[in-house]
Amino acid sequence: MGWWVYLLRCGDGTLYTGSTGDVDRRAAAHASGRGAKYTRGRGPVEVVYREECPDKGAALRREAAIKKLRRSEKLKIIAEYAERRRNMKRAAFIGTGNMGAPLVRAACAALGPEQVVVANRTRAKADQLAAELGCGAAEDNRSAAAQAEVVFLCVKPQMLRAVAEELAPALGAGQTVVSIAAGLTLGTIRGWLAGAAGAPALVRVMPNTPAAIGRGMLALTAEEGTPEARIRAVEAMLAPAGRVERIAEGQMDAFSAVAGCGPAFVYLFLEALADGGVAAGLPRQQAMTYAAQMALGAAAMVLESGKHPGQLKDEVCSPGGSTIAGVAALERNGFRSAAIQAVEAAYHRNEELGRV
Ligand SMILES: NC(=O)c1ccc[n+]([C@@H]2O[C@H](COP(=O)([O-])OP(=O)(O)OC[C@H]3O[C@@H](n4cnc5c(N)ncnc54)[C@H](OP(=O)(O)O)[C@@H]3O)[C@@H](O)[C@H]2O)c1
User: Above 60 in pLDDT, residue 1?
Assistant: First the structure.
């Protein structure tokens, strides 16, 4: 991946065919007169066609084939390319459910809604989201995928194989596929994309539901050799959803157990704290607000102070005071052990889901 064939239109109207690992840098070299003898003195130059090839050898072969074409044939592929570019969106989302919809919102914020298209099994759901955000809604999955640079697959893990195999013929080397499915590895998904016309880049992202309000914790991992620019493009599209960090694929299931499933564990804890507040005499709504705002502040303290949570806990506990009495009650009831086991159970389930 990462080798390109390109066509330049020179200032005098002549066409130049070349291949390179970085079209924009090469075009700049041509423009400055250091690109090739042919383009020297024929500026300004404009890139009018680019095609990504799997490797350097394939790019050289394609370059030789294009060089043999008549001018009229070259103009035809340039015109077709321009037409494709005109219709091309930056991002397509297949699946607009609980996790897909927040990411669509993020991409619309990052790129502008006119650069985003969505498709969903129940069409009305995609239409509703598109109407709300001002993005496009496609007739079907394939037409959405065919018109986007980055295709996000946001269906349940058990649906992913069918969707990937359905989309593969509509995908090419110039595109990037992003899976958000828990558990499914890059290798497994790559196998399902085998029917693609050209191999798209492949990235896995694990988001969590707070992405819906821009406070998500998202992890990203990409296949080895994925061009940096492709990864950066995906990161930029997701940035409005929250914090995005790159991790090794081997850490993905553990990340998902902590950050993907974690919100449910925290909600359980917040509900229980509010129950305790109600038992102690607070109205339910007030108890809920106090518990949630407290958790927000405590989480920010961990992130912003850089202190270990144990130290922050010690700073709240005065000798013989009420907090240490509460901490002791949590310990008696195996609170920390329960939290550890929750993450471990989620991790093992992620592993199971990934065994397809
Ligand atoms: N929820 C989370 O907290 C979370 C966190 C991290 C990762 N994830 C991952 O996110 C993915 C989606 O999960 P979710 O919670 O968003 O599930 P969801 O709410 O059920 O959404 C899945 C969406 O995919 C659509 N869909 C199903 N089959 C389709 C097909 N063949 N073509 C087009 N659309 C199709 C469904 O359409 P209908 O409207 O017809 O049902 C639904 O809108 C999963 O792979 C999951 O592992 C979820």
Answer: no
Q: Are residues 283 and 230 in the same domain?
A: no
Atom in ligand 1 nearest the alpha carbon of residue 263: 3
**pLDDT tens-place string over residues 136-191:** 999 999 999 988 999 999 999 999 999 999 999 888 888 999 999 988 999 999 99
Among 93, 94, 103, 120, which is best to mutate for testing ligand 1, by the most ligand atoms less than 8 A from CB?
120
3 state SS of 177: strand
Q: What per-residue confidence (pLDDT) applies to 233? A: 92
Residue 255 lies in a domain: no
* DSSP 8-class letter at 249: G
Q: What is the DSSP string of 4-37?
A: EEEEEE-TTS-EEEEEES-HHHHHHHHHTT-S-T
Residue 153 resides in a domain: yes
Residues 143 and 176 in one domain: yes
Q: How large is the average pLDDT for residues 237-262? A: 96
Radius of gyration of the chain (CA): 26
Q: Which residues line ligand 1 (CB under 6 A)?
A: 94-100, 119-122, 125, 141, 154-157, 159, 163, 180-182, 206-209, 260
Tell which of 39, 62, 86 closes a domain.
86
Distance from residue 226's CA to the centre of ligand 1 (Å): 26
Quote the domain boundaries for residue 53: 3-86
Pairing outcome for strands 176-179 and 201-206: parallel
Q: Model confidence over 298-327: pLDDT tens digits?
A: 999 999 999 999 999 999 999 999 999 999
Residue type for position 266: V
Is the per-residue pLDDT at 356 higher than 70? no
Centroid of ligand 1 to alpha carbon of 233 (angstroms): 23
Whether 194 is in a domain gets the answer: yes
For residue 94, the cross-strand partners are 119, 153
**197 and 101 together in one domain:** yes
Same domain, 187 and 218: yes
Spatial distance between the Cα atoms of 163 and 95, rounded to a whole number of angstroms: 10
Q: Which of 63, 86, 109 is the last residue of a domain?
A: 86
Specify the pairing of strand 216-222 against strand 201-206. Answer: antiparallel
| Domains of the chain: total | 3
